[in-house]
Design a protein that fits this description.
single chain, 231 residues, alpha+beta, Alpha-Beta Plaits, 2 domains, 4-stranded antiparallel sheet, 4 strands, 13% strand
């Protein structure tokens, strides 16, 4: 059984590794940020310590008792799902938070690794996850998301087009809505100009979306913006 100093050291290391990933999420203003990731990592480490060493006295007093040290820790893998679901479902009608949910699940794995004394694996996983979260995103935006981004603008009567109305018109494509900006029209004082940006939309899908938005009550004109970049 590990000593008390070793156990405390593992918990502290888990807090440090969890904070590294949590800080990256915190700076993007996600609800599951610094403290959430630290708590998940430390909690997983504690569960791993309990699972591996918490029943040593039972094994010492009972000759015919056999315990599986991985049984309690294994529940973390499935149990952490409730936090991931919360990170996703809290975004109302828009499905977002998948990356944060995945980072929470990964942080739990890091905590289990630290609790099991696999320091190299835990630190390496932390570095890799940070590279994925902070390093891959700019590349994704530059080479994937931007190429698949499409934009359009609407001219509509003031107050006639709302975000909820656009989301209802988009239907299953609501998750692809990236921008919704409303401003008063300079040429038509009684109208508003609405800029809408969508990501990961094919040409046929974009045509269908434009057709639905043109039919919204109060819409007078629909123009494809300069941001329309084909997939």
């Amino acid at each position: 059984m590990t000593g008390e100093v070793e156990q405390v050291s593992r918990l502290v290391l888990a807090a440090a590794l969890g904070s590294a990933i949590g800080f990256e999420r915190e700076r993007l203003n996600w609800a599951a940020g610094l403290r959430t990731h630290m708590l998940v990592c430390v909690g997983a480490t504690l569960i791993m310590l309990v699972s591996a060493f918490g029943f040593a006295d039972v094994l010492g007093s009972q000759k015919n008792t056999v315990l599986d040290p991985s049984r309690v820790a294994a529940q973390v893998v499935s149990g952490i799902g409730f936090l991931g679901a919360g990170a996703i479902l809290m975004r109302n009608e828009v499905v977002r938070g998948l990356t944060t949910a995945a980072s929470l699940w990964s942080v739990a794995g890091i905590g289990l690794a630290v609790g099991g004394g696999m320091y190299t694996a835990a630190i390496s996983a932390t570095v890799i996850i940070l590279l994925i979260l902070a390093g891959v995103k700019p590349l994704e935006r530059r080479f994937i998301a931007v190429k698949q981004q499409r934009a359009l603008s609407l001219v509509a009567e003031a107050g006639s087009v709302t975000l909820r109305g656009v989301q209802e018109a988009l239907g299953a494509s609501t998750s692809r809505l990236r921008q919704f900006i409303v401003q008063r029209s300079d040429e038509l004082p009684e109208c508003e100009e609405i800029a809408i940006a969508l990501s990961r939309v094919t040409g046929s899908e974009f045509d269908a979306i434009c057709g639905r938005l043109e039919k919204l009550p109060g819409v007078r004109e629909c123009h494809r913006g300069a941001g329309d970049r084909g997939a």
